[in-house]
Amino acid sequence: MAILSLQGVSKSFGALKVTDEVGFALEPGEALGIIGPNGAGKSTLFNLITGNLRPDRGQVLLDGRDITEETPMQRCASGIGRSFQIPQPFGQLSVYENLLVAARFGGGLSAAEAPAQCMDILRRCGLARHADRKAGSLPLLDRKRLELARAMATRPRVILLDEIAGGLTDAECVALVATIRAIHAEGVAIIWIEHVLHALTSVVSRLMVLNFGRMLMIGAPEAVMAAPEVREIYLGIEA
Ligand SMILES: Nc1ncnc2c1ncn2[C@@H]1O[C@H](COP(=O)(O)OP(=O)(O)OP(=O)(O)O)[C@@H](O)[C@H]1O
């Protein structure tokens, strides 16, 4: 059974249809990439999955269970974690404290369980040496790592990554991709919106293209990137 599926999900802001009959199923442990031009509705789709937005029509299912009416907190507790396009740590708290908040309130861990879990995630995300540093003072790569670590601390079975590689140097991108691959190897399913295509295609096994809120295509990354309509619309190359 699919871990997460969307069925005919639509959302408009006034007259602007931002999500138009989107439907797909994510298998347990799968990594799916989402690409599309600016304004195609990618982040909106994430907000519909996490419950930050409610669809006008359609359903969101987790393990076959309809969660369309559930709050973001309920969905987080059920195993949907996310990172934000613009990192949103508690800047005045330390890196460790940021994880603790996510583990206690998002992951439902007890005060006794949370510290060891948080230290483990900090190590896996390459942040252990920054544990006591104020989150607001981290350089960009480490802020991205913290965004990933905070999502991991909520103990997700599906993690949504929103343009997490944006703004990184090539070397930083390689380091972040290694961390994402390690998380995926643990069995966490991933949906990743990303403009940095080489990073995305080094992790995902399926790619979805969104354009004007519609799912233009979904399939193997090589086939999708080679499709004339994708090259024309996404890359601006005439077919
Ligand atoms: N809360 C909102 N109210 C009104 N319009 C919105 C709202 N959120 C998004 N939009 C509009 O919906 C469209 C899709 O936005 P969205 O952020 O989902 O696109 P995106 O594909 O993630 O873009 P980008 O690649 O630039 O991040 C845009 O035209 C945006 O201005």
TrEMBL record:
Q: Does the keyword Membrane apply?
A: no
The ABC transporter domain, residue ranges: 4-237
A Gene Ontology molecular function term for this protein is: ATP binding
> Which InterPro entries did the record assign?
AAA+_ATPase, ABC_AA/LPS_Transport, ABC_transporter-like_ATP-bd, P-loop_NTPase
Q: Which GO terms describe its cellular component?
A: plasma membrane
What GO terms in the biological process aspect are recorded for it? D-alanine transmembrane transport; L-alanine transport; L-isoleucine import across plasma membrane; L-valine import across plasma membrane
Pfam (any one): ABC_tran
Keywords associated with the record: ATP-binding, Nucleotide-binding, Transport
Q: Which CDD domains match?
A: ABC_Mj1267_LivG_branched
- PROSITE patterns per record: ABC_TRANSPORTER_2
Task: Tell me what this protein is called.
Answer: ABC transporter ATP-binding protein
